[in-house]
């Protein structure tokens, strides 16, 4: 029986002539010892276990050549100052008739299309797109949401477009646009009602990270530094006022004599 092993590939810029048309290529990462230690893998998929925007890996493998299966989770320890945005498009449906003034959430639906446009650190226009749950059968194990990488550009997303499938025979485009989306955040889109994109709503959740903590520490440090300077200047001004008062008192006594 041939041995089955796992490989992880990284999407990098093209470095040879065979991929110049696509400008991208896959590079095999051979130095992943934890992934190589998993024997007889059946299927592997990415999943954000810690909800921090870094995609970890879940591997389904056979145990000791038996028919039993085991699930292993591998944490992604790759640290990079890269940004992301996570989008999940819900169904916007209720199990029964929706109560009045209650907006239905539903569950994540297959088929939505997500695209963004932004400007990178070099001032060039950048866009990317992805689909949500393009396949749900045959053990596909796709993510229930869409994770879009932004690279090292911390700029706001200028435009974020979300579209959902339409019924057969319907010609209306079901697409809505949101602007100024914050990086490292999660956007939950509620397409209700389906045929009125202007009524769709979105909820934005920020993902806490070390950058937020460092920013808070830097802000507190700047405030403390400014307070120290203000205190020193106030102390010097008070000493100068006391000196002037003493001089005025001496001058008054001298004039009285």
From TrEMBL:
Q: Which InterPro entries match?
A: C2_TIP, Tip
Give the record's keywords alphabetically. Answer: Glycoprotein, Membrane, Transmembrane, Transmembrane helix
Q: Which GO terms describe its cellular component?
A: plasma membrane
What is the recorded membrane topology of this protein?
A: Single-pass type I membrane protein
Q: Which residue ranges run through the membrane?
A: 211-235
Q: Where is the T-cell immunomodulatory protein TIP C2 domain?
A: 104-205
Pfam families registered for this protein in UniProt:
C2_ITFG1
Cell inner membrane in keyword set: no
Please classify the protein's predominant subcellular localization into one broad category: membrane
Task: Give its localization.
Answer: Membrane
What PANTHER family would the database entry show?
Answer: T-CELL IMMUNOMODULATORY PROTEIN (PTHR13412:SF0), T-CELL IMMUNOMODULATORY PROTEIN HOMOLOG (PTHR13412)
Q: What is this protein called?
A: T-cell immunomodulatory protein TIP C2 domain-containing protein
């Amino acid at each position: 029986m041939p041995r089955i092993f796992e490989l992880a590939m990284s999407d990098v810029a093209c470095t040879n002539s065979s991929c110049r048309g696509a400008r991208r290529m896959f590079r095999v990462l051979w130095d992943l010892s934890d992934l190589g230690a998993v024997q007889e893998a059946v299927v592997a998929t990415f999943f954000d276990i810690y909800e921090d925007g870094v995609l970890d890996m879940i591997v389904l493998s056979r145990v000791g050549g038996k028919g039993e299966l085991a699930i292993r989770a591998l944490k992604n320890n790759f640290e990079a100052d890269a940004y992301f945005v996570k989008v999940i498009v819900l169904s916007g449906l209720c199990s029964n008739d929706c109560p009045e003034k209650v907006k239905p959430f539903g569950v994540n639906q297959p088929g939505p299309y997500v695209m963004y446009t932004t400007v990178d650190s070099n001032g060039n226009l950048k866009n990317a797109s992805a689909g949500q749950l393009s396949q749900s059968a045959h053990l596909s194990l796709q993510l229930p949401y869409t994770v879009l990488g932004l690279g090292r550009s911390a700029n706001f997303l200028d435009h974020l477009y979300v579209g959902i499938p339409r019924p057969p025979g319907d010609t209306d485009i079901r697409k809505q646009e949101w602007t100024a989306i914050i990086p490292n955040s999660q956007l939950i889109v509620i397409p209700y009602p389906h045929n009125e994109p202007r009524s769709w709503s979105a909820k934005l959740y920020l993902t806490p990270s070390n950058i937020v903590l460092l920013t808070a520490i830097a802000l507190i440090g700047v405030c403390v530094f400014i307070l120290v300077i203000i205190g020193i200047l106030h102390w010097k001004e008070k000493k100068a006022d006391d000196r002037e008062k003493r001089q005025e008192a001496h001058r008054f006594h001298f004039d009285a004599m």
